[in-house]
Amino acid sequence: xxxxxxxxxxxxxxxxxxxxxxxxxxxxxxxxxxxxxxxxxxxxxxxxxxxxxxxxxxxxxxxxxxxxxxxxxxxxxxxxxxxxxxxxxxxxxxxxxxxxxxxxxxxxxxxxxxxxxxxxxxxxxxxxxxxxxxxxxxxxxxxxxxxxxxxxxxxxxxxxxxxxxxxxxxxxxxxxxxxxxxxxxxxxxxxxxxxxxxxxxxxxxxxxxxxxxxxxxxxxxxxxxxxxxxxxxxxxxxxxxxxxxxxxxxxxxxxxxxxxxxxxxxxxxxxxxxxxxxxxxxxxxxxxxxxxxxxxxxxxxxxxxxxxxxxxxxxxxxxxxxxxxxxxxxxxxxxxxxxxxxxxxxxxxxxxxxxxxxxxxx
Length: 362
What we know:
The protein is mostly helical. The chain folds into two domains: about 1-165, no CATH class; about 180-350, no CATH class. It has helices at about 1-10, 15-50, 50-55, 70-75, 75-85, 90-110, 115-130, 140-180, 180-195, 200-210, 210-230, 235-245, 255-260, 265-280, 300-315, 325-350, and strands at about 60, 65. The chain has a two-stranded antiparallel ribbon with strand order 1-2. The longest helix has about 40 residues, at about 140-180.
């Protein structure tokens, strides 16, 4: 057993929730952002501003036409797997082999591809690391093991992982349609808290394919955390803190939350209010890419995703036009209400002594 532990340590194979549930999951979201999400944004810009280069076909592969954005989106599987491999500190031959693993697992995982990529990429990467530099023909053995394991698992389990992810996601979305008030609260609070925790809310939403009203509630929760913390900590962190948290990440407050968990109550209560408002009053839906549901105001990706969904719905004939009420709802849920509600709750907690000056300094 001691020899096995020593071997794992030598290979930097750490079987832990942090390595797989935080590092790998967070990296997967970055891979999605740099492929699927960026591709979607490029396509939206091209279509809305009528930019010929961005709307024209630049490549035709196996009879399928691709725009610039389409090429970026098509690489989502490899991008996720390579990002996961990077987070797991894979040596070069393993990391490069992850391109094939990501393509196979995402393709065979179907609509639930991101979850399949996460599970299979972790296993393939760790086994690839285990054999790396253990033979004199490393350049053959390491890619063969990594790719062989990745493709084999993709064939055996990726379709089932994908179906399981989509089943759970569809169940959540169905429940939200059925009980928009209760589910609006639950999704907004849970996904919002996940965004502030050192895990990836974006990857969770992507893995579950969380769109529709449930996606709108997720956006609301993430915005409440980001804008909420940005506003209530303005006294301590000024404009730099407002920007870094408001369009960056509320994860910057995790150190302060550990010291005084009560600072987390104000933005969380705000999310419990904005979530059901999004689902019941404004009918805010995320019909863009599911990964956008867990991004909030980070780079305004959540808002761009909602807008992209509107455009897609209009093109599909399920929405007549983007109305002023749509814009009012998006602005209120994303920016105004999170700021006002969080600040109001924060002032109450300061008055009763739960929070004091300096608690939110980053």
